[in-house]
Structure prediction request, 285 residues.
Amino acid sequence: MTTSRIADRPEITVDAHVHVWSPDLVQYPVVPNSNYTNAVRGDVEHLRGLMHASEVDRAVILQPSCYGYDHRCVSAALAAYPDTFRGVCVVDPFAPDAAAQLHARHDEGYRGLRLNPSRDDGTWLDDPMTAPIWEKAAELGTIVSLLILPYQMTRAKTMIARFPGVPVIIDHLGRPQVGLGEPKGVYADTLALAQFPNVYMKISGLPASTQEAYPYRDVWPYVQLALSHFGADRCMWATDFPWISRQCGYGACLRLVTGEMDFLAPADRRALLGDTAARLWRFEG
Prediction:
């Protein structure tokens, strides 16, 4: 049973970061040593049910790492519900045909590209050899999502400055180092990216950064800093489904914004819950 939409909710509520996977490992095999687990239900119909129960209208699906570069599962979800979802693909930035691959994914309906320097030392992020995929992203209007760690922000800054026409989203608050010092100090390199108007911040991943139980109050200072530096019109809420299902739960993740974070003004809530993401991802009512 759904609850009535509260006054602070935007016209379109958007979950700006989800993944989907299938229990069918024959049709959609996972890559070796992946983080896939059938203990967490991740199929698109389950996601749609959770969205409906929480009155979330749209979502952005990022290709999960468990499928590597095989996009068939996400592509099937996008094809089934083209008005509900937007897709973010992955491409090896060092592949000789990386730019052509990105163009092919764009032709298939993907409007975003995810780069994941957090999986290693990330020294490749500002390597000139990755420039072709950024150039293609600029040409196509592709949005780049960065799963990135705090010490990698200066490398991201190099590419962001070089390609000001590419919208860039920092995933999961940039994985702040909660508990390692005064927030503004340890978060300085991340906050420095706010100087670039093409950079956005995803208010997500709190369960992965916190050292406390729900509602993760130790991460709130980083949310406040992100809002004060980037502005609510460049910040967006997300659940990181399906992982949220074994953390606080989908509905509780939404309540972080609708009810728990009492420092949010009504305009902040509307921006976080949909206005920013709907504008960036071109969702229509």
About this structure: The chain has a mean pLDDT of 95. Residues 61 and 88 are 6 Å apart (CA to CA). Residues 266-281 form the longest helix (16 residues).
